[in-house]
Structure formats: structure tokens, C-alpha cells
Amino acid sequence: MTFVSRIKSRHWLHCGLMILAFALVGCNRDQIKVQEVPKESGAASQTAQSADAPTAPTDPHAGMDMNMGSGTQPQVKWTLPTGWQEKALSQMRVGSFNAPGKDGQSADVSIIPLPSMGPEMELNNLNMWRGELQLPPATKAESEPVTVGPGQGKLFEIAGGQTPGRILVGVLDHEGTSWYFKMRGGDAVVRDQKPAFLEFLKSVSFPAAPAVAMADPHAGMTMQPAPAQGGEASGVALPAGWKEIPNPPMLLAKYVIQGSGGAEADVNVSMLAGQGGGVMMNITRWRGQLGLPPLSEEDFSKQTQTVDVAGTQATVVDMTGTDGKTGKKARLVGVIAPQAGDTWFYKLMGDEQIVGQQKDTFMKFIQTAKFSNAP
Fold first, then answer.
1. DSSP assignment, residue 294?
2. Are 87 and 102 in contact (CB under 8 A)?
3. Is 100 helix (H, G, I), strand (E, B) or coil?
4. Model-level pTM?
5. Sign of the alpha-carbon dihedral angle for 322, 326, 331, 337
6. Under the phi-then-psi rule, with left for phi > 0, alpha for psi from -120 to 50, and beta for the rest, what region is 350?
7. Which of 37, 150, 158, 214 is 20 to 30 Å from the Cα of 267, by its Cα?
8. Burial, 222: exposed, middle or buried (Cβ in 10 Å; 0-12, 13-18, 19+)?
């Protein structure tokens, strides 16, 4: 059976497994527009501005090599405090606001969901926020309890720096997602807006997810890698040294590249309908596999690149850390490529030297892929 026909025959099964695994995550891509997540401003309801925002769904299979989500997104509702103004969303935010203060100053408020990474990441996050104010790292993550919607979360408060500033962060873990509600600005405006911020946290709610449709509108999508020099496996020419693993669980394709002394790296290919959970949450998950903390908003654009894949812009990330499964130093090159309403995920991960040697070959393998909607 060829690579292409095998993907076509397994695609229904793959999508079915994804749907079952993530049926409780959230709404579909059309429902991540902010105006479809009802909010209230003051005492009156209002419709928010339209903007797309990738968000972080639940990861019930942490440690498995699969991509989180099935194009679904978690939902959040809130009551906007009087005077706060909504503003454009970024890659990471699902809510973004200005909280005005005196003398024309304002504080920036954001809502960012990320895959839950456990309490061990609290100190890393705290020191990332302290770094924004140019404060030295802390040795202990101190917080106080705070009400965030239906649950009790943690409130972190950081103040000081060369130009006195203040940051408030409310954190709540809810159904596999860590929700970060952050206010940052000058010391005076954040202190003035703190009561409104705490009321804002209390107003948060998480609507139940609508049912996920079982139909697959992209069942005919296939990927046809262009031939490359090297040995053949399952009817497709592979780069030299790549060995195909037949019928990998939860993946469309898997290859192993072996080096000396038992060192090896894996190449994994998978696809999910819609956004597949979003770029940021998948990169965060990959970073977790290497023992790395989530990226800040400021670092996201610095740590990623874009590349053309079949006429669309794909996101590329290259990072090094410690493999959580082996405890050895490892490197990961990941590519997230949208195609015709679906998202394709390619990952090269393993021995640092092998990944370095194979990166160019890996990127050529992806960039020569051909996509078709054959029935």
C-alpha cells in the first residue's frame, strides 16, 4: 500500500480518534471569534469586536506524540469593568483590554490560555514576569488565593523595577488548561485598577462546549511528498537513512533516523482539522517535552520563523532541551502548516547531533510536499 493510499484509508480512523479524544475541549474554529463568546460590559450586555485567536485545549494524552485538539477551542466569558476598552488580539491572547488610569495612563490586561504544565512551572513563570520589570529572579513562587470564576486560583503580584511598575496575574487551572489573567502597567494605575481586576476575575465563566460534529469535511485530503534520493518505503522515496515505522498510533507517518552509539531521532507527521488547537499551544506542548517553559508574548516572534509550504505560510520552531522520556539532551525542529482548512504537524526530535545534520533534509521533505483534494 502506498504512503498516499495509506493516509487516505486511515484518515477517517485518525479523525475519529481525535474527535473522541477531544470531544470535551471546546468550540470549533468559527466559534473562536470573540463576538461569539458573549460578554457583558458593566450592567449591560454587549457584542465584542470580531477577531480570531488560537487557544489552548485540554491535553488528556500528555507524553503521547499527538497534537492537541481537533480544531476545537475552549470558551470563556467575562464581565468587562466600567471604563475598560477592548483592543486587538495577538497570537496568544483570547482577551485584550486597556484599563485606564489617571493622567492618561493605562494598564494592559490580557487573557492567555496554555496547556496545564503543573505547579513546578510557577517559579519559572514568576521569574519571567519579574524579568519584565527588570527585577532579579525569586527563589520561591509566593502567591495568595483568589477567586477566578467558578474556582479558586492564585494571584501573583510583582512590583518595582528601574521604572516602577506593577504586574498582577491571576492563574486558574480549569479542565486541563491554565488560564492566565494578567494586568501590567505603572505602579499607580495598577494599584488603582486592582479592585476592578479582582471583580473581573470573579466574573469569568467557562461555557459548556457544543457537540463536536462527527462528519469530516476533509476526508479526501492527501499529502504526496515529492520523491527524494534514498531508499523506498511503502511506495514513496525517502531521504537516505530514514526508516519508516508502519502504522504508527495517532500519526499519519513516522520515520526513525539512527546514528552511532544507539542515538536516534524521529520524524512524525500528523494532521488535524481546523487549527488543531493553535500554533502557540502546540509550541508550548513541544517545549514541555523538552522541559522548557512557555514562551512569553515578547519572545514568541523571536523564537519562531515562517516558511512557505505549498503556497501557505508555515510556522517553524527550533529548540533544544532535555527529553522528558530519556533524560538526555535533545533538539526539536517543528513545523506547523495550515492547508485547506486543516493543519499539518511535522516534528523532527531526538539526538541533538542527528537533528542538526538532518534539519535541511527535513525542511526540504516538507517543502516539496504536494497536497491534493482527491476524492
1. P
2. no
3. strand
4. 0.52
5. negative
6. left
7. 214
8. middle
